[in-house]
Amino acid sequence: QVKPVESGGGLVQPGGSLRLSCTASATIFSVYPMAWYRQAPGKQRELVTYRTTSGDTHYADSVKGRFTISTNNAKDTVYLQMDSLRPEDTAVYYCNTKPQVMPWGQGTQVTVSS
């Protein structure tokens, strides 16, 4: 199976912004909700946000109002706009579906630090 490919991570100061991108199968995204997960050091991977095939979006309480999930017209790329970043947002971010049906990609590291 083809793995998703995430990009856009980096080092940012608290209060800053980043935009993550992920390319994957449009076919799979047409069937399953597209989602972003993250895994902080020493913690389990957690669901951050997902977007249903009808366009409804859902966010973890910890990121609500700060993160936005979106997609392109071809539905083969999913974005995560992250604003007002906090040190506790530091993690490796992964895209997949909800529930997860694709192999995990390599993720992209987001570090929020001054």
Structure description:
By secondary structure, this protein is mainly β. The protein contains one helix and ten strands; from the N terminus they run βββαβββββββ. A six-stranded mixed beta sheet has the order 2-10-9-4-5-6, with no helix packed on it. Strands 1-3-8-7 form a four-stranded antiparallel beta sheet, with no helix packed on it.
The gist of it:
This protein has 114 residues and is mainly β. The chain has one helix and ten strands, in the order βββαβββββββ.
Shape: globular
Tell me about the biggest sheet? 6 strands, mixed
Which value, in Å, is the CA radius of gyration?
A: 13 Å
Oligomer: single chain
Strand order of the biggest β-sheet: 2-10-9-4-5-6
Report mean pLDDT, rounded to a whole number: 96
**Element string (H = helix, E = strand):** EEEHEEEEEEE
Q: Approximately what portion of the residues adopt beta-strand conformation?
A: 35-45%
| Structural category | mainly beta
Kindly state the percentage of residues in helix.
under 10%
List unreliable stretches of 5+ residues. Answer: none
Q: State the helix count.
A: 1
Strands, total number? 10
The termini sit apart by: 39 Å
